Amino acid sequence: MNVFWSDWSAIDTWIVITAALAAMACALPGTFLLLRRESLMGDALSHATLPGMVLAFLVLNAATQAGWLTPAGMTAWRHPALFVGAAISGVLCGLLAELLQRWGRMEPSAALGVVFTSLFALGLLLIRTWADQAHIDPGCVLYGNLEMVIADPFGQSGIPRAVVINGAMLAVNATLLLLFYKEIKLCTFDRDLARSLGIPADRVHLMLLAMTGATVVAAFESVGSILVIAMLVAPPATALLLSDRLGGVLIGALIVAVVTAFGGHLAALALPVMLHRWAGAAEASSVSTAGMMAVVAGGLFLTTWFLSPRYGLLRQRLDQARLRRRILSEDILGVLYRLEELRPAAVPGADNASLAATLSVAPWRLWRALSRLTQRGWIVAGGQGVILTPEGRKAARDLVRSHRLWESYLAKHFVIPDRRLHTLAEAAEHFVGPKIQEALAEELEQPVRDPHGATIPPSTAS
Amino acid sequence: MDPFLFLESLTLAETEWARVLLLRDYNTRIVLCGTMILGVASGVVGALMLLRKRALVADVASHAALPGIGAAYLIMEAIRPDSGRWLPGLLLGATVSASCGLLFAQGMRHIRRIKEDAALAITLSLFFGMGVVLLTWIQSLPTGHAAGLNEFIFGKAAALLASDITGIAIAAVIAVSVVALLRKEFCLLCFDAEYAHAGGWPVTGLDLLLTALVIVITVVGMQSVGLLLVVALMVLPPTAARFWTDRFDPLVWFSGGFGGAAAALGVLLSALVPKFAAGAVIVLSGTFLFALSFLFGSQRGLWWRYRAMSAAQRQIAIDDLLRACYEILEPQLGSIEELTEKPLTQAALLETHRWSPKRLRPLLHRAELADLLRRDSQGNWRLTADGRRAAIQAVRYHRLCELYLIHYADVPLLGADRTADAFEHSLRPEILEQLEAMLEAQSPRFSVPANPHAATETVARTPRPEAVS
Fold it and tell me: In A, residues 382-441, which contact B (CB 8 Å cutoff)?
């Protein structure tokens, strides 16, 4: 890594700062888009802002030609005008989609698709027809020129303009969120409740839309649409896997956004060098930083999906495996108990082969479960193979009691054929705790025998 | 461009129009043919995607194809320099990576927290990011020029070649014939996937097949007409067709037709007007067709719905007016026949129903035209015979609803009037019959139930009638 650090310069610092600010500014409205299930809005806006930009440019051009603006004035007004034009057409896109949804009863994604493809085509047509000289390079809008932020300082200070714009946008978003946190939250999660409480839900929605539009447009120019699309959805989605509270998700999204910006730039610096050195690929001067950040954002999301403590794939699999192990152990106890019950005079216990056949499990699973049970002191070697210890017998009796109580309960209250009772109880017995046992016994008036005539063992607690 | 020049280019010599419209131009013929075939195929497939509520999957597929194109280029260059732009190889790369992207999005459906739209957006940004990284990398290679790869993003509809058409036609024939062959299965999938699953249909397989069709069309279309156009052609025609029909088969074929029509319209326009880029004009033609359908579509068009709604509102206003007339006259009536003989003043009407004079005047005028009210010599209003019948009916419906609300829905007496106002106009005849039977126990005056508000005590004392079976 030392190679990259030695090359690190002020330019790199500014790139990371710009990207981090833009990403944080996007993550805030992005969280609400995600919660409202409008995540594709980022992609839609990145296309829909084109006609607004072109029209703003044309208006400026016309004004200059008519003599209302000097060429110097035009350069000064260029950025604000493009910003306003793009923001207006972005908000228009959201409003039109909403309108089509309401009046045409269209599905949200279809409405969005209709609007943004049309607006983008309109923008392209305007460019080709009237603004050939406009220097609006679609590629530049796409990839952004993050690498060049330093070349465009704000006034006399050395701070890049993009940092100021995106920082201001972040501040505006954060302020609006803090001011209207309660209203926005309510409108996001329960629009009807919000409306019945007298909160103007439509206006709040419009505010969010304007916020999204302005943020996205501010970020486009400096970091490119690809990064904006990624930053609107990936950090909030990552945070959503980690937190259950809106505040937590928002803060998490901000942190993920910063990490993404830093990691993305690092990866963009490292990747070509690494590929060159280890894979023998041809030397390439650079890859798109914005694109790399989008990849890192996706990668962070995937990593979180695997490792998240609550919703992670790994956690799910571990929980499932643990449950499966518990069920198998309990089943073994049940089999041993029933054998003792069935043949009180015979040599107690069972060997591995017959257990594996009865429970139809793979030998290695059985072996693992048996060793765990031995460790807990519930079974010991003896008899025909393994036998229950007094401790183990107690646990087994508990389980069989659950099983038979459940059978009796099902038989009393539901019309279920007798042979199905056992299968159903087999599944339920592992989840009937002492409380439910007690309730069942009370409901069935302390039964002694189950529907098949077997004795229901007494409660182990008593 | 100067507006006059633009107008001039529109009013070209007649020969120019004829040349374009009669397709004398070989190039126009090729482009028209290719885009129309693509339009029909993507319209057909897009209709299924719309019904499956996945209209934007094509958008994601087209973005997700990008890294495949870059990777295919790099691999082919590594194998043999200067072979990187071999088209079938690039298309294969695009197909593989688009498929990976959509499978990835499908896999994310297993996370409870992440909804479908977020899964699609994350896939899009991740794959598109990879694509951008690869393309910028290729661009910066000493040997590489990404020129030609960019066409995948922005398209080159106007420069289609005869060889492109073969590819498009094959893809289109495959797509349309698969849809035609599996019509029933797709229909089931689109309308009730769970039922299809319970019925033993391979829902996952069908979904994958549908996704594969989308990918094929997207990849072929991207290469020939550009990323945006192919997405638009999958979204615009089906949404437009949805306003014309509520049935599956017509929707699919209408959608195909709209796709073809949009392509034809766009190509012809762009051939007629110089500087009109074909891709953008095709999309805008699709938008035009959509707007037309949205406004005037026979099934759910805004215009027809507006007409129906304002007609209903007019009818409701007339009903309210007649009811007001009846209620004003009611205290003075000896028998129901006298209804036509008593005069009504405009002031009394204004007082009863909180109409503004501005609203009442056209209302009275309309009632007069419909021969429900007439003016007598003193300038007062009187009900005609028709008006009497309509007024009795309106009052009857209103009171039946009110009584029902008071007796069965436990609506307080004061609220019943307003609540009944809201739904008395939209009751079906069988329900009214039931209400009548239910309230027969009360001997009504003039076959109109008594006003429950005037006779609060009697209503309160009447035993609650048994419910009608």
Answer: none
Residue-wise pLDDT tens digits, A143-179: 566 777 777 777 677 788 888 888 999 999 999 999 9
A-B CB pairs within 8 A amount to 201
- Which tens digit of pLDDT belongs to each residue from B266-295? 988 888 887 777 888 899 999 999 999 999
Task: Select from B122, B131, B239 the Cβ nearest to the Cβ of A233.
Answer: B122
* Chain A contacts in chain B segment 292-331 (CB below 8 A): 294, 300, 302
Same domain, A90 and A24: yes
- ipTM for the complex shown: 0.84
Q: Is B284 on the interface with A (CB under 8 A)?
A: yes
Query: Do A113 and B243 make contact, defined as CB atoms within 8 angstroms?
Result: no
Cβ atoms of A162 and A147 closer than 8 Å: no
Residues B378, B376: Cα–Cα separation, whole Å: 6
Question: In chain B, what are the domains?
Answer: 22-300 (1.10.3470.10), 319-386 (1.10.10.10), 389-461 (1.10.60)
| Cα A128 to Cα A51, A137, A286, B277, distances in angstroms | 12, 11, 31, 7
Give me the long-range contacts of B406-415 (CB less than 8 A, separation at least 24). B406/B452, B406/B459, B407/B464, B407/B465, B408/B467, B413/B452, B413/B453, B413/B456
Chain-chain contact of A110 with B235 (C-beta, under 8 angstroms): yes
| pLDDT tens digits, one per residue of A359-384 | 888 888 888 888 888 998 888 887 77
* Angstroms from A396 CA to nearest CA on chain B: 36
